[in-house]
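Subgroup meeting minutes
Present: P.N., E.W., G.H.
Scribe: E.W.

1. P.N. recapped why we're keeping a running log of single-chain structure predictions: easier to compare across weeks, and new members can see raw inputs and outputs side by side.
2. G.H. added today's entry (439 aa).
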Amino acid sequence: MNNSIAGFSKLSKAAKINWIANEYFSDPQQAVNTIKQYWNSDETLQQLHDEFIENTITNFYLPLGIAPNFLINGNYYSVPMVIEESSVVAAAAKAAKYWAERGGFKASVLNSEKIGQVHFEFKGNSEKLHEFFEKIKPKLLQDTDSITKNMQKRGGGILNIELRNKTSVLKNYYQLHATFETKDSMGANFINSCLEQFAKTLKTEALQYTKFSDIEKNIEVIMSILSNYVPACIVRAEVSCKVEDLADKNILNPLEFATKFIQAVKIAEIEPFRAVTHNKGIMNGVDAVVLATGNDFRAVEAGVHAYAARNGSYSSLSHAKIENNIFTFWLEIPLALGTVGGLTSLHPLVKMALEILEKPSAHDLMKIVASAGLAQNFAALRSLTTTGIQEGHMKMHINNILNQFQTTAEERKIIKKHFETNSISHATVVSFIENLRKK
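Output recorded in log:
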């Protein structure tokens, strides 16, 4: 079957849907009905969603949940989380409540620099290039005045520009490496606009520089783009208490629990196979809040995982210790987030999520997101080192299985009663449903 099509983007929305339905489904009308079922009844709101991306045919829903009782730097937050995975919101909420009773989360932004680069080729004398760069550096800044004016009013702008010689790893390769402060904006458009102006100025000034030979004047700009790796845009979140204060109804021996917990973290520090899953748990919390607040979780993921491998081996983002009878659990992660611009002013639920968080600054949002990641990690490690991860996860996951088999209200009552005292797995639940229906 040839499913290619020319001019798909030029088709109307209805024509796109009809082509998809007729090309890929045995019952085209049912496919059309399913697609339209997820449209918003408010036409203006639906058009807003349609225009977020290209070639839209419908909306793809993910649940928006709330994890309450996050005590962060003395203030309580109810944290919005968008995620499809069972048990994540419940685990974050449980960990938040647990630590709220023990002083809460302490979070701080250690730095907030963002990075952009102009990548270019220069065929000539590197000393002459460095001399040229120092001469035109004021011009590079001057030519971006119209772009940076509003950002400077908010206390942001270009922090520095460096010329970096990378010819030892790639022939003729140099870069302008620039650092930025973008305040409450994530700043991608701002940074990229500055970089593209740097590139224009670089090429123009090179053509007029009398100390360059004809070959040296022809600087070849490869690309100008921000970096999603922001190792100088770091937030730290931590929790701590006396070892004996870790005790609750499920932690009867707090020193034993803390010792085992710390060992689990140390394993993730030195074993990449464990570290990936360990950090994935952190990102369950991080991504869910990043997505709920209209930020780019893919950029965050890429930057965080690069940071986890910054020392040459992929390692845990979180750490734990006991010192002077104080148990401390913390993480430091790079987060480039914004609370103005992009979807933050367009998506109604993003605006609502930011309202729930009491209109945080970008720095405040970084602290909240890092705390959510740490809470999620604590909940996972607590389960792993005590009851095991599956007990709690499957209790939450059972609803997905019941929905999959379209169980009735009466069936659900019987099934949930049975699994209050019996081991839960996908196979055991399916088997019980089948046997129940045979009766």
